[in-house]
Design goal:
With 342 residues, the protein is an alpha+beta fold. The protein is built from five helices and 18 strands. Helix content is 18%, strand content 39%.
Length: 342
């Protein structure tokens, strides 16, 4: 479908709208075409190569915006999965998204997709990075907070040097938490995470992601489709063992600013902290976002990922509903297939 006209007469896509810490999650519940492929990564490639027009229609204006985020439900191929999902954003298709997993866990219980059990209901969500196990708090039949354990997380590179145009040689870490992130304190480039403008942090995040992606080759032991740098996370530098709380901001998919603490990013940060001895197994830390939303994260179990020493991280947070929608496209709408203004 990409590059071809959409089937306008039959286009009708239904969604449930949610947010986690202010970060939107547009869950596509009906109207998206079936995708070929025996694995979820094959379905992801099919969506990217043949149905990208639908991503633009759902994520871009006038139905979305540059910061929109989406989740498309597809058939799982993992035997333990209750549902499978592809993640959409302004630039493409991510491999893991913690804030969306939290929303999907609550949605799955509330809709009866997974039968509710009190006090917690397990929901297994297959993501492109692998199986993510969630536990959804249920009280009086209503779903609430969600915690998830993602795929093994690890430090890919520590104290890597990257040449940048604006800051010269820059030291940063690369962590994997279902997606790869460059991680560094904002103060290392002269920015205060709480006082700096979002524009300044966004400009810096985009530049650092581009520089790191060009200079640090990535690899993943499971599949080459997972080996790309998703974004940059600026931290407040509070990584010491005794720190109970810390703050970060993630710039991903080019210039998209995560309103949540970033579930996969928090997972990557915990892996880096644990590898450095700044966090012990069983120790919980609170991660705050630009909106003041918080995720709690705990390093729960040591494991491996290929050659990497890795850790299983549990992240918890809460999602909320904001509405429902049914999207159509009129044949005479010159802007209906999507555009972006920044």
């Amino acid at each position: 479908m990409d590059g071809k006209p959409l089937a306008i007469d039959s286009l009708s896509i239904s969604t449930v709208e949610m947010h986690t810490g202010g970060e939107p999650v547009r869950i596509v519940t009906a109207g998206y075409p079936d995708l070929p492929g025996s694995t979820l990564l094959e379905k992801r490639r099919a969506a990217r190569d043949h149905h990208d027009a639908l991503r633009r229609l759902l994520m871009f204006e006038p139905r979305g915006h540059a910061e929109m985020y989406g989740a498309v439900l597809v058939e799982p191929d993992h035997p333990e999965a209750d549902l499978a999902v592809l993640f959409l954003h302004n630039e493409g298709y991510s491999t893991m998204c913690g804030h969306a997993v939290i929303a999907l866990g609550r949605w799955a219980v509330d809709t009866g997709r997974v039968a509710a059990r009190e006090p917690e209901t397990p929901v297994n969500i297959q993501c492109p990075c692998g199986l993510v196990r969630t536990s959804v708090t249920v009280e009086n039949g209503r779903a609430g907070a969600v915690r998830f354990r993602s795929v093994p997380a690890f430090a890919f590179a520590r104290d890597a040097m990257v040449d940048t145009r604006d800051w010269g040689p820059l030291q940063l870490d690369i962590g994997y938490g279902g997606a790869f992130y460059a991680v560094l304190p904002a103060q290392s480039i002269g920015l205060d995470l709480e006082a700096a403008s979002v524009r300044a942090l966004t400009d810096a995040g985009e530049a650092i992601t581009e520089a790191a992606a060009a200079q640090i080759p990535l690899s993943h032991p499971d599949d080459p489709d997972l080996a790309f740098l998703y974004g940059t996370i600026f931290t407040d530098g509070r990584d010491a063992f005794e720190a109970a709380e810390t703050r970060n901001l993630c710039i991903f998919a080019g210039r998209q600013v995560d309103r949540s603490p970033t579930g996969s990013g928090v997972t990557a940060r915990v892996a880096l902290q644990w590898t450095r001895g700044q966090l012990a197994l069983g120790q919980t830390r609170s991660f705050e976002s630009i909106t003041g939303a918080r995720f709690a994260a705990t390093a729960v179990e040591e494991t491996t990922a290929g050659r990497h020493r890795a850790v299983i991280v549990e992240v918890s947070g809460k999602a909320h509903y904001s509405g429902e929608a049914r999207f159509t496209l009129e044949p005479d709408d010159p802007l209906g297939e999507g555009f972006l203004l920044r």
